[in-house]
Amino acid sequence: MEQPNYIYTNRAVAFLDVLGFQNKLKEFEDEAIQFYSDFVADNIEDDTDEDEVGGRVYYSQKATDFIETFNKAISKLDNDKFSYYLFSDNICITAKNISNDGEKSLVELLLVISELYFEFVQKGYFLRGGIDYGLFIDKASIALGVPLATAYKMESSLAVFPRIILSKDFVKQLSNHIAIDEYEIDSILNSSLVKVSCEIQYLNVFNHIFKVEDKEYFFEKYNHYISENLLSSSISESIFLKYKWLADEFNSFIETYTSTLAFYDENFDPTEEYIESIKQLKVSYGQ
After folding, report:
1. Are strands 164-166 and 127-138 parallel, antiparallel or unpaired?
2. Is the pLDDT of residue 180 over 50?
3. How far apart are the first and last CA of the chain?
4. Rounded (10°) angle between helices 168-177 and 105-121
């Protein structure tokens, strides 16, 4: 019997969405149309050959920045372990459940998503989504299986806030990869990757701080963009509550980080001055 072309294998599947991105798509299109119009206006009485200046094109710098932000984080993925797709404001990332030399792909997936989250934050965007685990057909142009449908449902119905929901099946697999007898530093940092709210488990995106060199910059950017979105959404309660939730999460992480986690970072020696400066970066808001 010939080997089938399309085989199910176990995969972790993440489906991510950019919060409030529909308005951004319109901005991109308007910018592209304006770029085209400016070119026509600049050259309408000019004999310059279009080919010499790239021709008349629709171009959006904002759209380019969005795509390059995605590419910057995704480029670090090992193609032997991960596949990824970008379609409009939706991002799909799949991961094989393998472990080589202590390198765990499921943990790595969460770390990459945390990095991707921060990359988008620096552009003023916030992500939400879901991650599931199960049998999946993952080919160059084909992504098919229950985990993708489940991750999509979690993103659309459970995420609500700018957070990444983790299914029970994914968390079960993840727990198998975080050994009890690991070094204390690994155990503490890995265990802080997942947060729990009632029956919902979700990714602690702020854990990316341990991968960042300029740690004050990390906290400053989160503070700035969360505060900015709280202010801009002050006339819409449904949107305001999403960023209020994120502000509370951020403030809670700063409290935990400055009291315990920062002192477990073997690559960084937090000074008292540093700890105090980070405490000052909690987001303040009022209704």
Report:
1. parallel
2. no
3. 67
4. 120
